[in-house]
Predict the structure.
Amino acid sequence: MKRIGLLTSGGDCQALNATLRGVAKGLYNLYGNEVELYGFIDGYKGLVYEDYKKMTPLDFTGLLTVGGTILGSSRMPFKKIREPDENGLDKVEAMKYTYRRLRLDCLVVLGGNGSQKTANLLSEEGLNVIGLPKTIDNDLWGTDTTFGFQSAITLATDVIDCIHTTASSHNRIFIVEIMGHKTGWLTLNAGIAGGADIILIPEIPYDIDCIVEKIKRRAAAGNGFTIIAVAEGAVSKKVAKMEKAERKQHFAEYKYPSVSYEIADKITEKTGKEVRVTVPGHMQRGGVPCAYDRVLSSRLGAAAAQMIYHEEYGVMVAIQEHVITSVPLSEVAGKLKLVDPESDIIAEARLLGISFGND
Ligand code: F6P
């Protein structure tokens, strides 16, 4: 009998359930009745505090199109993983204890950056672990794309599309703030798909004067409205140059709810024009997975089942150049996949007339 643990960790996204379904279907088809699945509740917390449920094949039916996660999720920051909890419990030892008490053969972790670091730690501690690349941010190193990313692009694009019609009716400047944490993948793709005029991403620090110039150029050419897609992590050239401590201080004293409001304020100051800000926020993580994510997560899930079958542990399942593969967790852990400012997609976007606020 094989015993497999499953958990979903960190911020949720659209295809978590579809991925769980893929893993489960793969395992049940490979092992028949000779496999038991245990779902841990609310991510690593369930593993620490022995909160789990024994799953049945029926638990995984009807999940392909369901957003969120049937197991629940939570954040357990990696940098505090070695700190005892409020009752003095050693969380890492507790996770190892639960794994051994349930006599698990493998733990499958559906998670983003922080979660894969913890997965790697558990692997280094001797547990059999397989990671699956989840996040709308697409910032996981070692995989070309992550599940959740395409669904979030679709949602963020829908928002820009809606803003486009109202912006053109009123000849207004609009900012749409898009998630993505410290990277610009989501904003870049939704910005291009939604026909944004200016795209601001953390990897290309902006200069407010360049943004204003672009707005003026558009107005002079007869375009009364401008759409700016701003990544939540976008930074000005000034902030990008700051040392860590100075930057910390800057944000401690920050008077805006987010960077978009600062940019809006500065544009108004420099042009006298009003600027509206739209923040779709967690909508971008919600709802049904798009068709691409359903296919991707099903493939990744099935591949995880295969890897368990072949006892290939200590890896994250990935997709590279359309091929499903695996990368060692030790290579994934602690690395961020950033947008390369010199990449083709940026050059192509510039050729389309999109400004990145630095030209
Ligand atoms: O990592 C996914 C993500 O949605 C990021 O884009 C965003 O910065 C963050 O999570 C928001 O986290 P929370 O849901 O904890 O507010």
In short: The mean pLDDT is 97. The chain has 13 helices and eleven strands. Residues 11, 112, 135-137, 179-181, 232, 285 surround 6-O-phosphono-beta-D-fructofuranose (CB under 6 Å).
